[in-house]
Amino acid sequence: MYIRRDITDTLIRFSKFPVVVVLGPRQSGKTTVVKETFSKRTYVSLEDPAILSYATSDPRGFLQRYRSSHGIIMLINFYQENYIPPTFNRILNVMFEIL
Asked: Which of 82, 71, 77 is nearest to 42 (CA)?
């Protein structure tokens, strides 16, 4: 059974933007709330080594492949306090260029 989260309405409001990034620690419910809120959208996880490799080696191709009229919802896990994966910075730079 899914319990609707307080952040759901905020995610829906933000979904009008081309990219929505959901940041948070592992096991905090990011994937669950995104999959439930945007069930008709394509879900891509950067935790999949093949997807991460593709996103890292060709961030432009990655974003163009998964971009749709609905935009892109990205989930980023923090593995350590104040740590953002380097991949995110590369993808973010390309997002600003093409979106």
From this structure: 71
